[in-house]
Amino acid sequence: MTRCAVIGAGAWGTALADLLARGGHEVVLWAREADVAESVNLHHRNDRFLAGPLLASSVRATTDLVEAVHGAEMVTYVAPSHVLRQVVQGHAAAVPPEATLVVATKGIERDSLAIMTDVVSEELPGRDIVALSGPSFAAEVAARQPTAVVAASSRLVVAEGVQRVFSTDNFRVYANDDVVGVELGGALKNVMAVATGMAEGLGLGFNSRAALITRGLAEMTRLGLALGAQPQTFAGLAGMGDLVLTCTGSLSRNRSVGLEIGQGKTLDEVLATRETVAEGVATAASAHALAQREGVEMPIVFAVNRILFEGSPPRLAIEEMMRRELRPEQD
């Protein structure tokens, strides 16, 4: 049994806490919201962010960060990307030095353009850090439907340790040593899901969706290679697997944001009705800046940015992409 702290009680953090508890581990779940912690402790539910599933009765929730990580052997971070650094800073001194750190947050930090494992590493230097990513809707994990993801660390033995802790009969974890590729796959697929949602909102069909997914994968791979990732990672669970799920699944928050924008709503109108975070919106700006910094061509990312932040009509942005200079499929 491993003593596990899960930092972030949104849908994904709650699902992972439940998964770990049902796997026989001791789990403390940190929630920013007092009502969420109370609901988990008293009713074994998180109706605010993961309505429906009854959680393992052994999951204990707290709003105290220091209490959550006290004595933890494994700390899993699932806070939204835009607050992850702040959350880690809030309890860094209390994290046991021997604890393995798992980062399940997907995104690219806006100002630094750092991937999430680097954010945690900068605040907690000298620790073993693992990225956990892959095609995994929280509601389906909580319903114990078969799911496969990737645990990545520069030290494969550390990834294998996380693999053993998280794996169950319904949740299969593969080990990987390509942290950059796994993280970029998990972050950039959300931007592509916003794009496919926009196309669907415009009434475009399966041809358009297939083109966006396939060319989106090419853009993800292109940026990944520029940053030192391994190309085969983008053909795996953290790349193609997560991309297909998020671009086509009805549970995808990022796809649904794009869908409403394609139907004519503004970004502000869409976000005003949502409490949960759609990481693709923030990541679109970060990915745009990162691609510019690296000199990497990412036309879908650039188009999503024009639509989200510059007021470009979605249909016009798609027409502009279709009129781009003809080129070979392979770089």
Note down, in words, how this protein is organized.
Helix 8 packs antiparallel against helix 9, helix 8 (179-201) runs parallel beside helix 10 and helix 8 runs parallel beside helix 11. The protein is globular. The chain has helices at 11-22, 34-43, 65-69, 84-89, 116-123, 138-142, 156-166, 179-201, 206-226, 237-248, 253-262, 267-271, 279-294, 299-310, 314-322; strands at 3-7, 26-30, 60-62, 74-77, 100-103, 129-133, 147-152, 171-176. Helix content is 50%, strand content 11%. It is an alpha/beta fold and 331 residues long.
Compact summary:
It contains 15 helices and eight strands. With 331 residues, it is α/β, with parallel strands linked by helices.
Biggest sheet architecture: 8 strands, mixed
| pLDDT < 50 stretches | none
Approximate helicity band: 40-55%
**Strand residue percentage:** 5-15%
**Helix-strand pattern, N to C?**
EHEHEHEHEHEHEHEHHHHHHHH
Count of DSSP H/I helices: 15
How would you sum up the global shape?
globular
Q: Which class do the helix and strand fractions yield?
A: alpha/beta
> Which value, in Å, is the CA radius of gyration?
19 Å
Question: How far is the first residue's CA from the last residue's CA?
Answer: 48 Å
Present the secondary structure layout:
Elements: E1 3-7, H1 11-22, E2 26-30, H2 34-43, E3 60-62, H3 65-69, E4 74-77, H4 84-89, E5 100-103, H5 116-123, E6 129-133, H6 138-142, E7 147-152, H7 156-166, E8 171-176, H8 179-201, H9 206-226, H10 237-248, H11 253-262, H12 267-271, H13 279-294, H14 299-310, H15 314-322
Parallel strand pairs: 1-2, 1-4, 2-3, 4-5, 5-6, 7-8
Antiparallel strand pairs: 6-7
